[in-house]
Write a structure and sequence with these properties.
Elements (H helix, E strand, L loop, with lengths): L7 H13 L21 E5 L2 E4 L4 E4 L14 H11 L10 H13 L5 E5 L2 H16 L3 E5 L17 H5 L9 H4 L2 E4 L4 H10 L4 E6 L15 H12 L2 E5 L11 H6 L5 E4 L10 E5 L1 H4 L18 H14 L4 H23 L4 E5 L2 E5 L8 H4 L4 H13 L2 E2 L8 E2 L6 H20 L2
Parallel strand pairs: 3-13, 5-6, 5-7, 7-8, 8-9
Antiparallel strand pairs: 1-2, 2-3, 4-10, 9-10, 11-12, 12-14
């Protein structure tokens, strides 16, 4: 094993950050609370690698939590953003770039007849919830325990992502009157959804779902689960909303809806469509989206919505993803990684399991199977924390949380995958030798 890496400069910067930023971070999971130790401070990224403030280089499987499917600082994206920055960074008016990105998205996802760009996944989910309630005249929403739809009030109970990482079941500051309008059911349990509609007849506006759950760790949908959700919502007059912030342009060019052949009423997008810059969107059927102002009366607005820098980065990214064979190549490398980890687990009979979907994966420190949030929470988070640091010492950066995904990018090479598997073999041996 290589000598322990120095993190002195990262520690110094983080101490300064704690004096001016809440917890030293601008998003909670970055604080490393679930794995311990001082968080990394990142200086630059290129391709599949990032470099911290101390000059340590790591193979990156976080990828800014999913947007960087092409890797860091892709020359085409950098050139596009540079070109646009010289011509203006924000207009507060419509630009042709917005039309071009919208057309690229609609070409990949025909269910999105009209789209509205916003600046974050939270904003998109919040707006989709408002639209669903307006369209149906109903107040209740169904979501799944462990699925994360941003930090708007209706979605902050039994959510995944940072709440799962920090062990927060629900956020203070959300009035009970609002929280009571969200019904949490078990992921991969369509019967529980049926029971919710029986209990609240004619009162549920929409079912929100991550078609592949990726915020309790990666949990694929059970056979027929998404189809059953489509049948239930159609029968009950409710909307089906796919949160494809992570899965959109990740598990397939057309997202999970293309992969599984399900047409939602509304879709939430983010991450990849901004190519590493802040952008998200919600879209869907024309009749529903036409309820939004200025065409309809459902109000939503944003000064930086459709920001030209983000639009340009998104356009350059999505154009790259249309290249023949891209997804097949990415899936092949991803499968070599996840199959390799699964083989290590099986060979040594480690009490762990691997879930994967396309270029998304999670190594759960529980024997599995992991099909929902209850089963995900059985994972040994202390062992994951040791695994995280062992991998980091071997030059591999994973999510500092058991309940997040590993993202493989188009920049990872076969050599990178082999190096990662070698690091994984050594790290697992150390973790389980410690008991």
């Amino acid at each position: 094993m290589t000598p322990k890496k120095s993190h002195t400069r990262s520690e110094q910067i983080f101490r300064q950050a704690e004096s001016v930023l809440v917890g030293g971070v601008n998003s909670p999971v970055r604080a490393f609370r679930s794995v311990g130790g001082t968080p990394l401070v990142i200086k630059r990224g290129a391709g599949a690698r990032i470099e911290d403030a101390d000059g340590n280089s790591y193979l990156d499987y976080v990828g800014s939590w999913g947007p960087l499917i092409l890797g860091h600082a892709l020359p085409a994206v950098v050139a596009g953003v540079t070109y646009q920055a010289a011509r203006g960074t924000s207009f507060g008016m419509t630009a042709e770039l917005e039309v071009e990105l919208a057309q690229l998205i609609r070409r990949a996802m025909p269910s999105i007849e009209l789209i509205r760009f916003v600046s974050s996944g939270t904003e998109a989910a919040m707006s989709a919830a408002r639209l669903a309630r307006a369209a149906t005249g109903r107040s209740y929403l169904v979501k799944f325990s462990g699925c994360y739809h941003g930090h708007a009030d209706p979605f902050l109970s039994e959510a995944g992502s940072g709440l799962a990482t920090l062990g927060i079941p629900a956020s203070p500051g959300v009035p009970e009157a609002i929280a009571s309008l969200t019904i949490n059911v078990r992921y991969n349990d369509s019967e529980a959804v049926d029971r919710a509609f029986t209990r609240y007849p004619g009162r549920i506006a929409a079912v929100f779902v991550e078609p592949v759950a990726a915020n309790m760790g990666v949990v694929p949908p059970a056979e027929g689960f998404l189809r059953e959700l489509r049948e239930i919502t159609r029968r009950e007059g409710a909307l089906l909303v796919f949160d494809e912030v992570i899965t959109g342009f990740r598990v397939a060019h057309g997202g999970a809806q293309a992969l599984y052949g399900i047409t939602p009423d509304l879709t939430i997008l983010g991450k990849i469509i901004g190519g590493g810059l802040p952008v998200a969107a919600y879209g869907g059927r024309r009749d529903l989206m036409s309820l939004i102002a200025p065409v309809g009366a459902v109000y939503q607005a944003g000064t930086l919505s459709g920001n030209p820098l983000a639009m340009r980065a998104g356009i350059e990214t999505l154009k790259q993803l249309e290249a023949p064979g891209f997804y097949e190549s990415l899936a092949g490398r991803s499968a070599r990684l996840t199959d390799g980890i699964a083989a290590l687990v099986a060979e040594h009979r480690y009490p762990a399991s691997v879930n994967a979907s396309g270029s998304l994966a999670t190594l759960f420190f529980t024997p599995g199977p992991v099909r929902n949030f209850e089963e995900a929470k059985r994972a040994d988070t202390a062992k994951y924390a040791r695994f995280f640091w062992e991998m980091l010492e071997r030059g591999v950066f994973l999510a500092p949380s058991q309940f997040e995904a590993m993202f493989v990018s188009g920049a990872h090479t076969d050599e990178d995958i082999q190096r990662t598997l070698a690091a994984c073999a050594e790290s697992l041996e150390v973790v389980f030798a410690q008991g």
